[in-house]
Design goal:
heterodimer, A: mainly alpha, 2 domains, two-stranded antiparallel sheet, 9 helices, 2 strands, elongated, B: alpha+beta, Arc Repressor Mutant, subunit A, two-stranded antiparallel ribbon, 4 helices, 59% helix
């Protein structure tokens, strides 16, 4: 079976064959459907490919996207979305799990490296407080989820508008502020949160090894997921 | 939505299943066959939500394979459940269409 990755690559190549007008219509459909994170990626890409093939076949006979899919692209996309099955829970868990492991892996490796470099010169406390650590981790995750949600919402709002899609400065500034505010909150929490919970000694080499392990596992999961689809 | 397309919407699933029963088709072929059959009002895009629903309900299944003209297309096949569903729809349609046809035909005749 053809992989999802190949489907996406083929979609990119075929889209170049669309006329300007049809491309705008189809691109909006594509973005709108792909931004539905809970839907099965495989099924979404298959239907997107079918719609693209149909549009290209129709284009050869001089038909436009409006003639084929109707003059209410958003309504049509909603109808399609309501029939695409949800992503399997297993795939969703491994997708987000892989991202979280990758992130944690990097954090631990960087922490290990920093302590490795400075500990010969300066006495450092290589332990961390369990609860504080968990709270900061949760704040970072929430922040990431919020920024992604905000970006998606902004893109979705920009779709299905008449005329050429133009870079919208207001949107960009809003996304920038949202991202910046999130960072500030994370830094403030990390700086001022008191030490809570049991203190665990976690030297630089442990940090480095466990971080590398997490990172390797996340790479492995990523490879396996891509091979499966 | 025109009256005709409203009437059609209810029976479109049956029509699509009937086309796929004859031979496996991909989307564009399907819309062509429906039009050749005289269903000119089916705007081409409307078949895709229906195809997705039929797939979700297990009445058809799609398979990527090379088309006559070369490139890969998703061909739809009728499943066992699809055959049974089509049989049922055909029977129900028979029960409705005959009396409706009769009622419409006798219009204007005094009897």
């Amino acid at each position: 079976m053809i992989s999802t990755k190949t489907l996406i690559e083929q979609n990119n190549e075929k889209r170049e064959l669309l006329t300007k007008e049809n491309e705008k219509y189809y691109d909006d459909l594509l973005l709108y459907i792909r931004l539905q994170m809970r839907l099965s990626e495989r099924q979404s890409e298959e239907i997107l490919m079918e719609l693209l093939d149909h549009l290209l076949d129709g284009q050869k006979e001089g038909k436009t996207a409006i003639e084929i899919f109707g003059n209410d692209p958003k309504g049509y996309a909603d109808e399609i979305i309501s029939q695409i099955p949800q992503e399997e829970l297993r795939n969703e868990v491994s997708f987000y799990g892989q991202i979280a492991l990758n992130l944690l892996g990097w954090v631990l490796m960087i922490r290990g490296l920093i302590y490795l470099v400075i500990h010969p010169f300066k006495e450092v406390d290589q332990s961390f407080s369990l609860f504080s650590f968990l709270i900061i981790g949760a704040v970072i995750l929430l922040n990431i989820v919020f920024v992604i949600w905000f970006v998606f919402k902004t893109i979705r709002r920009s779709l299905f508008k008449e005329g050429v899609r133009q870079p919208n400065w207001k949107d960009r500034i809003q996304v920038g502020i949202a991202g910046g505010a999130g960072m500030v909150i994370v830094i403030l929490v990390a700086r001022f949160l008191p030490k809570m919970g049991p203190s665990i000694f976690f030297p630089w080499y442990a940090s480095l090894i466990i971080g590398a392990l997490f990172w390797i596992v996340s790479r492995y999961m990523d490879k396996k997921m891509k091979a499966n689809f | 939505m025109t009256l005709r397309s409203q009437l059609l919407k209810g029976v479109l699933e049956g029509c699509i299943l009937a086309v796929i029963e004859k031979e496996p088709v991909y989307g564009y072929e399907l819309s062509k066959k429906l039009q050749e059959a005289g269903l000119l009002d089916v705007s081409e895009g409307t078949i895709y939500p229906v195809l997705l629903r039929l797939q979700k309900n297990g009445l058809i299944r799609g398979k990527m394979q090379p088309s006559e003209s070369g490139p890969n297309r998703k061909y739809y096949y009728l499943t066992k459940e699809g055959e049974e569903a089509l049989q049922l729809i055909a029977e129900e349609w028979e029960k409705i269409s005959k009396p409706v046809q009769h009622l419409m035909n006798r219009r204007g005749n005094d009897d």
